[in-house]
Amino acid sequence: MTLEYVREYRTYFHVSQGYGLSENTTYDIIKWIENTLIKHPNFALPGCKALLKSDVEYEVVLIDATETPIDRPKKGKNKQKNNNKKSIIR
Known about the structure:
Largest sheet: none
Radius of gyration: 27 Å
Structural class: mainly alpha
Protein name: Putative transposase for insertion sequence element IS702
Number of strands: 0
Region (Disordered): 70-90
Helix content: 55-70%
Shape: flat
Strand content: under 5%
Domain Transposase Helix-turn-helix: 1-41
InterPro entries: Transposase_HTH_dom
Oligomer: single chain
């Protein structure tokens, strides 16, 4: 159930429908499994000090994901074009 939720990006509602459970029960089960895995030492991440002491070199890649506005046509311009087309057709 948790693998379906994590891998397939399914909502709690869709996962619960597949198992015949309520959405609330599905949420509780998935959160319990996630919290259990977080507490287990095999899944622990090293702290900041451990990373600074290690001899491993890290390469950092920055990705610019800023949003830019889209130039959309003005609402009035389409009406003018339609009026011109109608006058040409007549």
